[in-house]
Amino acid sequence: MNASPDIFLSYNREDQATAKRYADAFTAQGLNVWWDTALRSGEAYDEVTEAALRAAKAVVVLWSPRSVVSRWVRAEATIADRCKTLVPVTIEPCERPIMFELTQTADLSHWTGEPSDKAWQAFLSDVRRFVGREQREEAPASSPISERAPTPQAEPMLAVLPFDNLSNDAEMDFFSDGVSEEIIGLLTRGSRIKVIGRTSSFRYRGEDKQRAARELSASHVLDGSIRRSGDKVRVSAHLTESSGQASLWSERFDRELTDIFAIQDEIAEAIAEALHSAFARNNEYVPDPAIYDLYLKSSPRTFAPDEMRALVALLETATLAEPRFAAAWGRLAFLRAWVLVYQPFADRPALAAQIESDARKALELDPENVDALVGLTLRLPTFGAFAEADRMVERLRAQPSVDSKVYTGRSLRMMGRVREGSAETELAYLQDPQNPMLANLVALGRMAQGREAEAVPVLEGLVVNFPGLVYPVANLMRAHAFLGDWDAINQLLDPALGRSLGEFAAGLPFIDAKRDPTLENRIRLRDDCLDYFRRTGVIDVSRLVYAAHMGFAGEFYDLLDGARLGPQGTADDITGPDAYATGMLFWTSMPEVRTDPRFVRLCARLGLVEFWLESGKWPDCATAVPYDFRAECEKYRDHPKDAFFG
């Protein structure tokens, strides 16, 4: 295909006759339609299909009871949504995937192809506006000006790129990044402008900045430079509209270093005005510039425990010198929480108390401090505190920044609300598509729903772009195992690559059993779980789910009454952010653990039943198991709950 298509038609193959009706109708209107009438192979998109999908001006998704469960259609709709080309239509009554429920969708379930149908005409008009081929009525000869109403403009999406450091000192890169980061925060808190997350926009530096608007689907880009010399600073900034490369605003500031906070406010205010949004100035306490430097240096890069400890030390110095610096207190709480998840469990209560103290100080100074709220969320045990976790989710949801949405989906999935949690993470991912933590959580959400094929490209991107991270490799292996792609797993495990799986190596027996589910391999997995139980007295959720999936649900449920579900305080304890977490209990691809009614008794011990009964926020599986789930929960209303530790 030489020219970019006007329309990419996304549909399920069983709806091919209906898809042809739409393709013919669009073509009759002079629109260029790309649609695939061939059988789909089940493999990754070929280059032609993906190129057409990304090049199309409008992606018309035909929702039906068949397409809503199609991995192909959902993947195409997700990409279209990210590219802001999605134009969905319902061709049969159905429940759309939850992440698309908020997208306006035409209902043409009645349409049989009649060109004069009013609903079809309205939908056709919407599609024409999307592709830029509005049908203009010929104006009367006496009137030289068309009275057609203007096409509504899409909501602005701003990318704030890292300002270039023009100082001679390369060490000042952190300062330039920090100014850009603070402008992101100011715009997020003080206006209604949607701002792409820092992690994504800050990947574009130097010549790569030319690609930022296109790859981030940003309607506007803020870029600039900083030159700092002693106590003097020069900041240049300019705002560009992406489609026409028109400069909407530019300014140069020559100020004292102590004025940097006022400059950031002025830039944010100018951007808001240029994008027709109100802006509330920041009234946060202004710290000493030297302490502010420490804060700017504390932004994490790898989330490795050693890095977190070093950054905590910087922030302890900053908060000691500037006790009214809310942002520093909030980030300190957040980073301590990441240190905590790798600490021995016996040491965690004291560290959790420090996190609570740091977060409280941040929230007293800034009630909307997102870092503090996330720190309070991460410091919670992974089972037994679901009511508090749910309260934290609601507090984070109330905040406008994309950073506040990174971890909410994770908490919801651990409560069994997989669809809701995954939709929340997907929406955040649209606004920060290159954030590695968010990308991993998106992939896990898709895997939890049985959408492993859609998780693979996200995880592959992480493995390539962040070779030092362990968790994408482990999760990618699991996704490939469910898809049966053993060649891909062999490549990931190639000894020549020298990859370490860290705490995720415990999942290798499961990979082997999935690869070759002989009785011998399945028993090897069972024995591995039994050995851990005999050594520690613990059956953790992940081992239970794996064993059940391999046919040993009954055997392990028989052992549960005499087993602990959480850590023991020994060297055998699992560490990391998902240690002893409940999320895997609800994975669609591993239902065996849920089909046994004893699943509810297990959930009662974990504190889930109490939460579901008291909150009324039921898990997705409540209507999917082969027994009366709510009645079983009522039977265990007063069942004793396990202590997480101790």
Chart the SSEs and their pairings.
Elements: E1 7-10, H1 16-28, E2 33-34, H2 47-55, E3 58-63, H3 71-83, E4 86-90, E5 106-107, H4 118-131, E6 157-160, E7 164-165, H5 173-190, E8 194-195, H6 198-201, H7 209-216, E9 220-229, E10 232-241, E11 246-256, H8 260-274, H9 289-296, H10 305-321, H11 326-340, H12 348-365, H13 370-378, H14 386-397, H15 408-414, H16 418-431, H17 436-448, H18 452-465, H19 471-483, H20 486-492, H21 508-515, H22 519-536, H23 541-560, H24 592-595, H25 598-606, H26 608-615, H27 629-635
Parallel strand pairs: 1-2, 1-3, 3-4, 4-5, 6-8, 6-9, 7-9
Antiparallel strand pairs: 9-10, 10-11
Helix pairs in contact: 5-8, 9-10, 10-11, 11-12, 11-13, 12-13, 13-14, 14-15, 15-16, 16-17, 17-18, 17-19, 18-19, 19-20, 21-22, 22-23
